[in-house]
From TrEMBL, chain A:
The chain crosses the membrane at residues 21-42, 54-77, 89-110, 145-164, 185-205, 217-240, 261-280, 300-318, 330-350, 362-382. Keywords: Membrane, Transmembrane, Transmembrane helix. It comes from the Bacteria. This is Quinol:cytochrome C oxidoreductase.
From TrEMBL, chain B:
The lineage of its organism: Bacteria, Pseudomonadati, Planctomycetota, Planctomycetia, Pirellulales. Residues 323-332 have a biased composition (Low complexity). This is Cytochrome c domain-containing protein. Residues 350-442 form the Cytochrome c domain. Pfam families: ActD, Cytochrome_CBB3. GO terms for molecular function: electron transfer activity; heme binding; metal ion binding. It comes from Botrimarina hoheduenensis. The keyword Acyltransferase does not apply. SUPFAM superfamilies: Cytochrome c.
C-alpha cells in the first residue's frame, strides 16, 4: 500500500480537452427539461408551482457547488492531507457555481417583473399593510435582494476561481508557493463563505415565507449542502473509477474517509434540523410555528417523516459499519440515497410555500426541473474539467495522501 | 538464551514466551507478517510509536470495542427514554417508597412528548457511549495493571525509545521453545530472551486485603450514621454539616415563638394603630359600597380589625370557640342594596384604555376578549371535558348588565362563587378601570342606532 507513490501509473489522470464538446448534449437536454417544466407550468396555469420547482432545481445544484467550495477551503484551512487526492474534483465542482449564478438570473428577472408567484414580499401593498412584513420591507425588496444575490455569487465564484487557478498553476510551477498561498487565503475565505451562505439561505429560501425566521436556517442550509456534496463526490469517484480514472489514486482509504465525513454530516444535519424544530415547537410562538404548521398538514406529514427516517435514522445506521464504508458499491448506494434525500429535504423547504395550490401529491414537476438542472450541472462540470489534471499532481501533500492509511 | 534479569537468583517461574528485538519498523512489520504466516497466533508487537500496517501483519482480530460502544449507546437511549417517561409522564398514587412519580404538565406539552425527550436521550447516549469507549478500552487492554512481566527484561525499556520488539507467547499452539527461538532469529530478531512469570513470594500478603476491607467498611460508618440520624427524631441535636444553613435564627410565618408571651411568631399591630396603606378609609373606592351610616371606613370593619388585635390566644378548651363566634362577620360582605352606582374615580379616556389592557391581561383568559365567556382557558377546559369547570358567566348576561358598578368591583376583588378574587393581583384603580371597560363592552353589545353620531349613521346607511 505504501508503495503506491512509486508504482507504475496505469490510471487516467487527465481529462481530455474534448470533454467540452461532450458536455453540450447534457446541457442541451437539461435546458430542454427545464423548458418543458416551464411549459407545463405555464400551460396548466400553475406558475407558482413551476417557479418554486425552478428555485428547487437551482438550489439543488447550487448546494453541490457551495458544498464543494467549502470542502476545498476547509481542506486548505485544516492543512488536510488525505483530501488532496479528491481536491481537484471538489475544485471543479465549486467551479459550476458560475452556471448556478446564470440559472439564478431568471428568478431575479421574475422579481423585477413584479410577479409575486415565487416571493410573496414582491407584493408591496401587502407588505406595507402587514405589521410584521412592514418592519422587514427595506430588507425584502427586489433591488436589494438582487444586489445581495449578486454579492453572494460574486464572492463564491471569485473564491472558486482563485483557488482553482492557483491549484492549476501548481500543476506545473512553484507547487510549494501555491500551496502556501492557498492555505493563507483559506482563513478569510472561510469567514466570507460562512457569512454569505447564511444570508443566501435566509434570502432565497427562508423569505419564501417572509413572516418566518429561524436563526438556525443558515446552518441547516450548510449542513444539507456539504452532505449532498460529499455524497456526490463519492458517486463521482465511483463513476470515474469505473472508467479507469484515478482508480489508483483514490483508494479504499479515501472512500472510507469520505464515507466517515458523510456519516458525520448525516448526523449533523439531523442535529441541526431537530434543533430548529424543537426550539420552535417548544416555544410555540405563532410567527415561528407557522412554517411547520403548513408542513404538518396532509401529505407533508408523511414527507416530514420521510426526512426523519430517510435523511437521518436509516442512513445513519446504514453507514455506521466500517465494512460498508470500505465497500465501494455499498457506500455508493448510500451516497445515491443521500442525494435523493437532499432533494426531498429541499422539496420540504421550498414546495409547501407554493401559493394557491393545495399540498401537492406527486412532485413530478419538481423532479423534471431538478433532473434538468442536474443535466446542466453535469455539462458545466465536464466543461470545467476539460483538459485539466484531475489530481493536483504536484501538490507537496500528494505523496502522503496517496499512501494515506486509516486506523 | 534464557538470559533473564542477571541479578535475579530467585527460582524460575513458568515460561511466558520469547521476546526478540528488531532493527526498525519495516523489519518489525515484515517479521510479524512472517510469524503469523507461519501459523503463530499469539504474537504481540511493541514499538515506541504506532507502526503503519502492524495490525494487519499481526492478523489480530478486530477489537470488539465498537460493539461495546454501540451496545452502551443503545442502552443509554433506552434508559433515558424510560427514565423520562417515568419521571415526567407517569403517576401511581399510593405507590410506596416515594415511587409514585408525578405527571408534569410543562408548557402545555403532552406528558409523553418525544421531541422534548430527545435532548436528554441524546446526552445520555453520548455519556454511556463515552463511558463504553473509555472504560472498555481500559478493560480490554487489561488495565489497570501494576506490572508486566516484560518489564523484567532490561532490553525491553528500549520499547519506549528506539526498540522494536516481537513477543511470541508460550500459550501459542505452535510454540516450542527451541524451534521458535530459531525461527525468530531466522527472521532477523536479535537478543532473543525468554520471559518468565514472576515467582510467587512477591505477592501482596493476604492479611493486607483483610485490613483494607475492614478499613473500607469502617469508613462507611460515619456517613451511614449521619444519614440515619438525619431522618429520625432524637433528644440531642443532630449532627449536621451545614449547621448555620439548616438552623437559621429566624421565625417563619405561622409558627410559634416562645419568646413572646402569647406564643405567636407573627406579631399583631399595636391596638389603635393601622398598618401603612391598611386604613382604606374611603369605602366607596376600596370596597365599592356606600357605608350604611356614613361612617367612613365602615364601622364593622374597624371593629373587626380592632377585635382581631385584642383577641389573645386562649389556652385551650371550650372558650376558644366562643371567642371565634364573637368576632363580627367579615367586613367585606356588605348588604346587597348599598352598592356604589357612580364611579368613585375620575372617568377618563386613559382610564378606559387602561381598563381594556388590564381586562385583556387578567380576565380575557377565562372570559374571552369580548367578555362572552369563551376565553382560552375555558376553551381548553371544554376541550378536555373537565367536569369541574364552570363556564364563566357572560358579562353581557342581563343579570350582570343590571349590576351596579360597585357590585362588579366587588366581584373582581373578592370573586363570585367559582371565580376567584383578584384584589391581591390588581390595584384598586385598575379594578375600577376594568369595571369601566366592562361597562363599555356591555354597551357595545346593546348599542342601538341612536348611539351613533348623526354623520356616522348616514355614512353607514350609504354603505349598502
Amino acid at each position: 500500500m505504501a508503495s503506491l507513490v512509486n508504482a507504475d501509473i496505469t490510471e487516467i489522470r487527465q481529462a481530455s480537452a474534448g470533454l467540452s464538446g461532450a458536455a453540450v448534449p447534457s446541457m442541451a437536454g437539461g435546458l430542454l427539461l427545464v423548458g418543458l417544466a416551464a411549459g407545463i407550468g405555464y400551460a396548466t396555469g400553475d406558475q407558482s408551482r413551476f417557479w418554486h420547482a425552478y428555485l428547487l432545481g437551482v438550489m439543488y445544484i447550487t448546494t453541490l457547488g457551495v458544498g464543494g467550495l467549502f470542502f476545498v477551503i476547509a481542506h486548505h484551512l485544516t492543512g488536510g492531507r488525505w483530501g488532496t487526492t479528491v481536491r481537484r474534483l471538489a475544485e471543479i465542482t465549486a467551479g459550476t457555481l458560475t452556471t448556478s449564478a446564470v440559472l439564478f438570473l431568471p428568478i431575479l428577472a421574475l422579481n423585477f417583473s413584479g410577479s409575486d408567484v415565487l416571493y410573496p414580499w414582491i407584493d408591496r401593498p401587502m407588505v406595507e399593510a402587514d405589521p410584521i412584513l412592514a418592519s422587514k420591507q427595506y430588507y425584502l425588496e427586489p433591488t436589494w435582494f438582487a444586489i445581495r444575490t449578486v454579492v453572494y455569487f460574486v464572492a463564491w465564484i471569485g473564491m472558486a476561481r482563485i483557488l482553482l487557478s492557483a491549484s492549476v498553476k501548481q500543476d506545473d510551477r512553484e507547487p510549494m508557493k501555491q500551496a502556501r498561498w492557498m492555505q493563507t487565503i483559506s482563513g478569510p475565505m472561510m469567514i466570507l463563505l460562512a457569512l454569505t451562505m447564511n444570508f443566501a439561505a435566509f434570502d432565497w429560501m427562508m423569505s419564501l415565507e417572509p413572516h418566518w425566521f429561524s436563526t438556525m436556517f443558515g446552518v441547516y442550509f450548510f449542513a444539507g449542502s456539504f452532505l449532498s456534496f460529499l455524497a456526490m463526490l463519492i458517486l463521482l469517484a465511483n463513476y470515474l473509477q469505473s472508467k479507469g480514472v484515478l482508480n489508483q489514486s483514490i483508494t479504499t482509504e479515501h472512500f472510507h474517509d469520505l464515507a466517515k465525513l458523510m456519516f458525520a454530516f448525516i448526523f449533523f444535519w439531523g442535529y441541526i434540523a431537530f434543533s430548529q424544530y424543537m426550539l420552535i415547537w417548544y416555544a410555540a410562538i405563532p410567527e415561528e410555528t407557522l412554517w411547520y404548521d403548513v408542513r404538518q398538514q396532509g401529505p407533508w406529514i408523511a414527507w416530514g417523516l420521510l426526512l426523519v427516517f430517510g435523511h437521518l435514522l436509516v442512513p445513519f445506521l446504514g453507514t455506521m459499519s466500517r465494512w460498508v464504508r470500505r465497500t465501494k458499491p455499498l457506500i455508493g448506494f448510500w451516497a445515491a440515497w443521500m442525494m435523493v434525500m437532499h432533494w426531498v429535504d429541499l422539496v420540504y423547504i421550498i414546495q409547501p410555500q407554493v401559493r394557491g395550490a393545495s399540498a401537492l401529491p406527486v412532485p413530478w414537476l419538481e423532479a423534471i426541473a431538478t433532473v434538468g438542472m442536474l443535466g446542466i450541472f453535469i455539462g458545466a462540470w465536464m466543461r470545467g474539467a476539460a483538459g485539466k489534471w484531475l489530481l493536483p499532481v504536484q501538490d507537496p501533500r500528494l505523496p502522503i495522501a496517496l499512501s494515506y492509511h486509516n486506523h | 538464551m534464557s538470559k533473564t534479569h542477571p541479578s535475579h537468583d530467585a527460582p524460575q517461574g513458568k515460561r511466558l514466551g520469547l521476546l526478540a528485538q528488531f532493527a526498525g519498523p519495516e523489519e518489525l512489520v515484515a517479521a510479524a507478517e512472517k510469524a503469523t504466516d507461519a501459523g503463530y497466533q499469539r504474537v504481540e508487537a511493541f514499538s515506541p510509536f504506532p507502526v503503519l500496517g502492524i495490525d494487519e501483519a499481526l492478523k489480530n482480530p478486530r477489537t470488539i470495542l465498537p460493539y461495546v460502544v454501540l451496545m452502551l449507546g443503545l442502552s443509554g437511549m433506552c434508559i433515558a427514554l424510560l427514565m423520562q417517561c417515568y419521571m415526567n409522564g407517569m403517576e401511581f398514587p399510593g405507590a410506596p417508597w416515594g415511587l409514585s412519580g408525578y405527571d408534569f404538565l410543562i408548557s402545555g406539552k403532552p406528558s409523553f412528548s418525544i421531541p422534548a425527550f430527545i435532548p436528554v436521550t441524546f446526552e445520555v447516549i453520548i455519556l454511556l457511549s463515552a463511558f463504553g469507549a473509555f472504560f472498555g478500552m481500559i478493560l480490554l487492554n487489561g488495565l489497570p495493571k501494576l506490572s508486566n512481566p516484560l518489564f523484567r527484561s532490561e532490553r525491553f525499556a528500549a520499547a519506549t525509545d528506539d526498540g522494536f520488539f516481537l513477543f511470541v507467547e508460550a500459550s501459542d499452539p505452535k510454540f516450542a521453545e527451541a524451534e521458535t527461538e530459531a525461527f525468530l532469529s531466522s527472521l532477523g530478531g536479535s537478543g532473543i530472551e525468554g520471559i518468565d512469570e514472576p515467582v510467587t513470594g512477591h505477592a501482596v500478603p493476604g492479611f493486607l486485603y483483610l485490613v483494607g476491607a475492614a478499613v473500607a467498611t469502617l469508613a462507611l460508618l460515619p456517613p451511614m450514621y449521619l444519614w440515619a440520624t438525619s431522618g429520625t427524631t432524637s433528644t440531642v441535636p443532630r449532627i449536621s454539616f451545614f449547621k448555620d444553613m439548616e438552623n437559621q435564627p429566624k421565625v417563619k410565618p405561622q409558627t410559634t415563638f416562645a419568646l413572646f408571651k402569647d406564643g405567636r411568631g407573627m406579631r399583631v399591630a399595636v391596638p389603635g394603630t393601622v398598618a401603612r396603606g391598611g386604613l382604606k378609609d374611603d369605602a366607596k373606592l376600596y370596597f365599592g359600597y356606600e357605608p350604611e351610616d356614613g361612617f367612613v371606613g365602615g364601622p364593622r370593619r374597624i371593629e373587626a380589625m380592632l377585635a382581631s388585635y385584642s383577641v389573645q390566644p386562649v389556652a385551650d378548651g371550650p372558650d376558644a370557640d366562643g371567642a371565634d363566634s364573637a368576632t363580627p362577620p367579615a367586613a367585606d360582605q356588605p348588604k346587597e342594596e348599598n352598592w356604589v352606582t357612580e364611579f368613585p374615580v375620575k372617568v377618563t379616556k386613559e382610564l378606559m384604555e387602561r381598563g381594556q389592557q388590564r381586562f385583556n391581561i387578567h380576565c380575557a383568559v377565562c372570559h374571552g376578549l369580548d367578555g362572552g365567556g369563551m376565553g382560552l382557558v375555558t376553551k381548553r377546559a371544554l376541550e378536555l371535558e373537565q367536569g369541574t369547570w364552570t363556564q364563566p358567566t357572560s358579562v353581557h348576561a342581563e343579570s350582570v348588565v343590571e349590576q351596579p358598578v360597585g357590585k362588579l368591583f366587588n366581584t373582581i376583588s373578592n370573586g363570585v362563587r367559582k371565580m376567584p378574587g383578584y384584589k391581591e393581583h390588581i390595584a384598586v384603580e385598575d379594578r375600577w378601570a376594568i369595571v369601566l371597560y366592562l361597562r363599555a363592552i356591555q354597551r357595545s353589545q346593546l348599542a342601538t342606532a341612536d348611539d351613533l353620531p348623526k354623520d356616522k349613521l348616514i355614512e353607514l346607511s350609504n354603505l349598502n
